[in-house]
TrEMBL record:
Domain NB-ARC: from-to ranges: 136-287
Domain DUF7779, chain residue ranges per copy: 365-450
Protein name stated in the entry: Tetratricopeptide repeat protein
Record-linked PANTHER family: AAA+ ATPASE DOMAIN-CONTAINING PROTEIN-RELATED, ATP/GTP-BINDING PROTEIN-RELATED
């Protein structure tokens, strides 16, 4: 570390800490105390802390070090570090950043593989494999090397990339503790596969799938286990950038996208067989034809491994002499060329084989042929027999429909497809997979009517196995499994409504696991298709619900204005439509979303009125005691908090907690949300200790976003109680969590930045506070406008940080404008206005405008006693400042602050020292 530090120019620990904090690409923050201890060799920091420091120092290195290589080098050193005496002189305030003297288990609470055993989900390789020895040796050399760089196998479809990866795993499986196969064509599939690994490791402690993935990757990186992750059929590198581990084990990627050649550490281009490899592969299959016939066949097939394998499988299954097959192949090839296919292309090669093999299969078994056609309209990912069997209640074309009732019969049909080389079948016959090239050729063989029927069979099958209830995390594995098939089979255009409803469930599932990009993409396809559909149109419930989901996804991706406009337009349609009307459940749900946008825009009174109309409608529909009605009052409380009325909000929230505890239980997520809202009510009332005591305990699988909101409230409460070191750790963790969960422009991320900035100021890092407050203010202005209350709150907080740095003129300029804007927009009695007034009075006093300071301080104190009351610390902070301006005694304000906060509180110490007190703003969640 000292060498790397010198190569980076020996920057100060505080400078490194600030740079890491400001770099959104890094996964954590690192305090300057931790960095100093790291450079002294004191203790062993947690790996994520080391990684952040190494990446930043490598970026600054004069020798131009490769950051990824340095991370892997340091990871090896970190794993080999001696555990003895790690806690010796680690500063107490940052001890949580260090590994304890007794290292934790390789993964949290998970069942580590038994000695000699491997935790794996990797499918078995094909029975027949030959050649590729040079490639395998080169792959082995890279993956076993000291640098442990990721490796990508890149090539066209059908050249055998996946089989090459499977063969590598089969040969060297004994050298790994964990081997995990990650289908990676769609990010949601990769997320589900990594989450499944988390289940095996015992670390799936969140309802947020992306948080589970982060935990899994972190556990692997900090583990001494030998692991290999194989990301199969990856598409865009940027889609998987957050799903790849940084160091610690080995990563292998297969892809048809040549962008991976530069994205992964070491690329290998996989081409077709050499002629000798083609012939050797035929011999491996047991083909005994003369060498000239084998050579002719290989040439006809273009040495494409997929085609050679398929032909060998069919020849073995039928016993047809190779010479006869060549004649039949030539006949079908002539037909395809006459239809316009290009001679010599891999498409023509596969199409010719499929024509021959599918024709023979049809003559042998109609049910097997129907299964072949069914698979052609599903995703090219593995299809388990149990999934087909689970769809036995679907109205699928006979005789295949009857076969679905017997898993044994389905296995027999699958093996028939395998014998003809039309699908890959697992060794136990319980899973089959069709290559995408074969799928295309099978679909091309069908007439329009045949394709319509078979696609409809797929839709009915998927409807039968759709678990529905996407808000229930127990259904997520099934949703993950059927999702790719819904997309590939174009279920959103199905003539049958249940199939389209399954698409809507998939959209909601993607939203719930945090894959907003995939949710938005599928939403757009659905909305466009359903609006244009004569049977549905823009007012159909599927269209309106998909529109609402699209708005939700876009909001989560930071497109606030577009999302809000969609909701406004949708609500107009619903309220005026004869099919809906103002009291329809869909209308009320959309009105609920609109109220959120009104709050986000700072139109708190309008949001309150919107939510009040919704509560009144629910009372008419369900009665005042119904849990749905009571739960809706929770939004009234949200509005009241934002309007500066926490006492009224607490009444609603307390009643809601009581109702939900009885109705769904105290541990239910809905109850915990209401309890979290109570924390913010208590913070608004100045009851900081009560807020800490009331924080909900999130046990088991809870949504990471909800935990983050509790974490933010806790950070605020700890700071207000004067426990600034604990507050800093909590605020820093919350900041990184929100960045990771939501991205840099999400409103919750911006709120976490403000909380972090306020906490930095409280611990004396005014420079850091100013930097973060400026960043938050710039983003708030860009996203929500200059006069949004959130923007104005950020302005007030920036002014507080500037005063801490002695930049009084800049603070005065900000406060003068902000006070006018806040008074006009929120009103003179709003707590945000009064907080800004306290800061402005401080500015006036510093600039010797004593008369103005006294006038403003007096008016503000009067309003605070009416609005906040005499039991709120802000009231007495204002009174203490006013006493300074009036040259009067501070005895009463100091005594009241001491009673409220305790004698050891930093604010009390500041008041006793005759210092001016500050009042920052922590807006509650919208």
């Amino acid at each position: 570390m000292h060498e790397l530090h010198r190569d980076a120019g020996k920057p100060g620990a505080r400078r490194v800490s600030i740079a890491i904090r400001d770099d959104e690409s890094l996964r954590d923050t690192v305090s300057h105390e931790t960095i100093s201890a790291m450079l002294r060799g004191t203790g062993l920091p947690k790996w994520v802390k080391v990684e952040c420091v190494v990446r930043k120092l490598a970026e600054w290195s004069v020798s131009g070090l490769d950051a990824d290589r340095e991370v892997r080098r340091f990871h090896q050193l970190w794993l080999a570090a001696d555990d003895d005496g790690l806690d010796g002189t680690v500063p107490a305030g940052v001890r949580n950043d260090f590994v304890p003297s007794q290292r934790p288990a390789p993964v949290p609470a998970g069942p580590a593989p038994a000695p000699g055993a491997t935790l794996t989900n990797v499918p078995a390789p094909a029975r027949h494999f030959t050649g590729r020895e040079r490639l395998l040796a080169e792959i082995r050399a890279v993956l076993s090397g000291s640098n442990r760089m990721p490796l990508s196998l890149v090539g066209l479809g059908g050249v055998g990339k996946t089989q090459l990866a499977l063969q590598y795993v089969a040969r060297w499986a004994a050298e790994y503790d964990v081997l995990w196969w990650v289908p990676a064509e769609q990010p949601s599939q990769a997320i589900a596969a990594l989450a499944a690994l988390g289940d095996q490791l015992g670390i799936s402690l969140s309802n947020d799938m992306r948080q589970i993935v982060r935990d899994v990757l972190a556990a692997l990186e900090e583990s001494a286990l030998r692991w290999l992750l194989i990301y199969d059929n990856a598409d865009q590198p940027e889609d998987l950038s957050t799903l790849l581990p940084a160091a610690g084990g080995q990563v292998l990627v297969t892809s048809r996208n040549y962008a991976w050649a530069s994205a992964a550490g070491t690329p290998f281009s996989v081409g077709v067989f050499s002629r000798d490899e083609s012939i050797a592969f035929m011999r491996e299959w047991g083909v005994t034809a003369p060498a000239d016939d084998c050579d002719t066949l290989a040439e006809q097939l273009g040495d494409l491994p997929l085609a050679v394998d398929q032909v060998c499988a069919m020849q073995t299954a039928t016993g047809m002499p190779l010479a006869d097959y060549l004649r039949l192949f030539a006949e079908h090839l002539d037909e395809l060329l006459a239809a316009g296919l290009r001679p010599g292309s891999r498409t023509t090669t596969v199409a010719t084989f499929v024509n021959v093999a599918a024709g023979r299969l049809r003559a042998e078994s109609v049910a097997a042929s129907q299964l072949l056609e069914l698979l052609a309209f599903m995703a090219p990912s593995p299809v388990p027999i149990y999934l087909l069997h689970a769809g036995r209640g679907a109205e699928v074309t006979l005789p295949l429909g009857r076969s679905l009732y017997s898993s044994e019969e389905l296995t027999r049909l699958a093996l028939q497809l395998g014998r003809y080389g039309l699908a890959q079948v697992s060794s136990d016959g319980q899973q089959l997979q069709m290559h995408r090239l074969v799928q295309v050729m099978v679909r091309e063989r069908l007439s329009e009517q045949e394709a319509y029927v078979r696609r409809l069979d797929v839709h009915r099958l998927l409807v039968e196995v759709n678990p529905k209830n996407p808000d229930d995390s127990r259904t997520w594995p099934q949703h993950s499994e059927i999702g790719p098939h819904l997309v590939t089979s174009d279920a959103l255009r199905s003539p049958e409504m249940p199939a389209r409803e399954a698409v809507l469930d998939q959209i909601r599932y993607l939203e719930r696991i945090g894959d907003f990009e995939a949710s938005a993409k599928l939403c757009r396809l659905a909305v466009d298709a359903w609006r244009a559909d004569s049977e549905l149109g823009p007012e159909h419930r599927l269209t309106t619900r998909a529109t609402r989901h699209l708005a939700n996804a876009l909001r989560s991706l930071g497109s606030y204005n577009l999302s809000r406009n969609m909701i406004v337009d949708l609500l107009k349609v619903l309220r005026t439509s004869d099919a809906y009307g103002p009291d329809h459940p869909d209308t009320l749900q959309t009105a609920n979303v609109l109220a959120f946008y009104l709050r986000l825009a700072g139109e708190y009174q309008k949001a309150f009125e919107e939510d009040r109309r919704r509560v009144e409608a629910l009372r008419r529909l369900h009665g005042p005691e119904d849990v749905r009605t009571t739960e809706a009052t929770g939004n009234l409380a949200v509005n009241l908090r934002l309007l500066g009325k926490p006492a009224a909000a607490l009444e609603y929230d307390a009643a809601l907690v009581s109702t939900l505890s009885r109705a769904v239980g105290a541990e239910n997520e809905r109850t915990l949300v209401a309890m979290r809202n109570q924390m913010w009510d208590l913070l608004g009332l100045g009851r900081f200790s009560d807020a800490v005591r009331s924080q909900p305990e999130h046990r088991g699988r809870r949504a990471a976003s909800e935990i983050a909101l509790v974490q933010q409230a806790l950070a605020v409460a700890l700071r207000k109680l004067g426990r600034v070191d604990a507050a800093l750790r909590t605020a820093a963790a919350n900041y990184r969590t929100c960045q990771s969960l939501n991205g840099p422009d999400h409103h919750l991320t911006l709120a976490s930045i403000m909380t972090y900035a306020n906490t930095l100021r409280a611990v004396g890092d005014a420079m850091g506070a100013r930097r973060l407050a400026t960043e938050a203010l710039d983003r708030y202005r860009r996203l929500f406008g200059a006069e949004n209350p959130l923007t104005l709150a950020a302005s007030t907080n920036l002014a507080v940080a500037l005063r801490a740095l002695g930049q009084w003129r800049e603070a005065y300029n900000i406060d003068e404008l902000t006070y006018e804007q806040t008074s006009r927009i929120l009103g003179p009695d709003h707590p945000h206005t009064l907080a800004t007034a306290i800061g402005l009075a401080n500015d006036l006093a510093h600039h010797h405008l004593q008369k103005d300071a006294v006038a403003l301080g007096s008016a503000t104190l009067k309003r605070l006693r009416q609005v906040r009351g005499d039991d709120h610390p802000e009231t007495w902070a204002c009174a203490a400042n006013l006493a300074l301006d009036q040259n009067s005694s501070r005895r009463e304000p100091v005594e009241r602050l001491t009673a409220l906060l305790g004698p050891d509180h930093p604010e009390v110490a500041a008041a006793l020292a005759g210092m001016r007190l500050e009042c920052d703003i922590e807006p509650p969640p919208t």
